[in-house]
Amino acid sequence: MTKIAVTKSSLKNLKSDLLVMPFGVRELKKEAAKSFEAFGLDKNALKDFKGNAGDSLLLYSGGSKLKSSKILLLGLGEVSGTEDIRKAASSVAHEIASRQVQTLVFDGSSITAWAGKIKGTTASVAELLVDTILYGTYRFDQLKSGKLEKKKAGEKEKKSRLSELKIRVNAGSLKPAAAGAESGRVIAEARNLARDLVNLPGNLLNAEELADAARKSADKSGCRVTVFEKEEIEELGMGGLVAVNKGSAKPPTFTILDYEPASAPQATVALVGKGVTFDSGGISLKPANGMDDMKSDMAGAAAVIGAVEAAALLELPLRIIGFIPATDNMPGGSAQKPGDVITTYSGITAEVGNTDAEGRLILADALAYAVKHYKPDAVIDLATLTGACIVALGYSVAGLFSNNDMLAGEIYEAGQRSGEKVWRMPVWDEYDDLIKSEVADVHNTGGKGAGAITAARFLEKFIDGHTRWAHIDIAGPSYSAKGGKHLQGGTGFGVRLLIDLLRDWK
Ligand code: BES
Ligand code: MN
Ligand code: ZN
Predict the structure, then answer these.
(1) 28 CA to middle of ligand 2, Å?
(2) Structural domain tally of the chain?
């Protein structure tokens, strides 16, 4: 775990593997030259540096007055918005990861000036810096034993990750910067927890283990946790979760994470996350190619666990309840079959035309349960629900579906602020024709067109007329496949989006 500190010590007295000196394009001309002179650094380096957001230039400090061995000149561009700072911090993270930096000092002497330029606060900039750096240095290496790695003579352990991140600020900015750094750490840890859960393969994270992860998170954040086991799930009549679980050798779980603030909550928000720990498709088996990526089919659940954890640790003034129906979706002699008709928790019956449309079946139970027992002011579900959503929006944007324009607008705005973007699609009555069933109340697939929408329309049947519901289809942005330009694996998408939304709750 990285230790985070905010200090007002002079840069000359701070020792580290890497000292980051950030400048906006405008500041580069005057101020950088001044600092370089004061520290005895070679000013020629400045000729080679443009200072666009995310640009960086590595220098060696030999002969200067600085104690850090390397210097990273970092561009902040025009400092015109959070995106410039995010880009710059990402490139620091990249440098840390590729150069095995263990201790880092970031010169935030101008942090309050940057905050002014982007119309933020000192705390929000410190938060963004710490969050982005910790997020960017994440690696999923818990399953690597290191046994096959060749060790150089004299080398003992495999090199550890960033152990210390210090931000240097002026005395007047110390307090807000420290508060922002702390919330940045909380948020990054919650996002990285979600990534760990997504990255764990199906044999190491089944429904019970996902429930254990929720318990562990609740321990850390101090929320209440309830886990329904298979027998209770059956007794409750959660026919969707039971049906999807039928082919599995492992029992399902239904987990409730309940965060209540110290004083009367401003609102109660239910967050529901799809927790399919592995989706083979069931009897409607998926093709082999890419099936391994379906270990990520619990990314909605992971985002909910992360968001509830961060919300609790940030002590948001809302009651936030996470609901996680979990199982894998497997074929087998006892698996549900195409054509089966099931009775969900709400009593609504569904014809299972395709066992690979399983997410909506377990969400149907969870949504109905959340609405019935908790009377939330708003219900938001996150799910890796459809390939069709990827066809529509690609891999970096999530689909947003809602019956409430205000809520949809707020989620859209939170997406723009957080960088985890969503784009709205309709859930109009017209789509009902596509999910009509001859034998049951509703059909779990909608045929060729509008696959992401018919899935959303299916979910809407189970909220019992609730007027403030949103569904976020994160099939695309929750996971980066091999060979892309991003780090392969879980992205934690949704945590930052939800925190941004909940913090600014109206
Ligand atoms: N988990 C998948 C959706 C998915 C696909 C997520 C690709 C991430 C990447 C979901 O359970 C599913 O299989 N959906 C089907 C629905 C269809 C059978 C109506 C799909 O999208 O093909
Ligand atoms: Mn499926
Ligand atoms: Zn699925």
Answers:
(1) 52
(2) 2
CATH classification of the domain holding 119: 3.40.220.10
Q: Note residues around ion ligand 2 (Cβ under 5 angstroms).
A: 279, 356, 358
- Looking at the structure, tell me whether residues 336 and 462 fall in a common domain: yes
Does residue 79 sit in the same domain as residue 172? yes
Candidates 481, 451, 143, 479; CA nearest to 290 is 481
Query: pLDDT tens for residues 87-124?
Result: 999 999 999 999 989 999 999 999 999 999 999 999 99
Average pLDDT over residues 431-441: 98
Contact 2, 163 (CB under 8 A): yes
**Is residue 149, in this structure, part of any structural domain at all?**
no
CB 440 within 8 A of CB 341: yes
Domain extent, residue 421, equals: 204-503
Would you say 139 and 88 are in contact if contact means Cβ atoms under 8 Å apart?
A: no
The residues annotated as belonging to the active site are: 286, 360
Three-class SS state of 112:
helix
Give the tokens for residue 292.
Answer: 């391994």
pTM: 0.97
The model's pLDDT over 24-68, given as tens digits with 9 standing for 90+, comes to 999 998 899 999 999 999 999 999 899 999 999 999 999 899 999
Q: Name the residue among 306, 282, 144 with its Cα closest to residue 220.
A: 306
Residue 28 CA to ligand 1 center (angstroms) comes to 49
Given the structure tokens 């109206």, which residue do they identify?
506
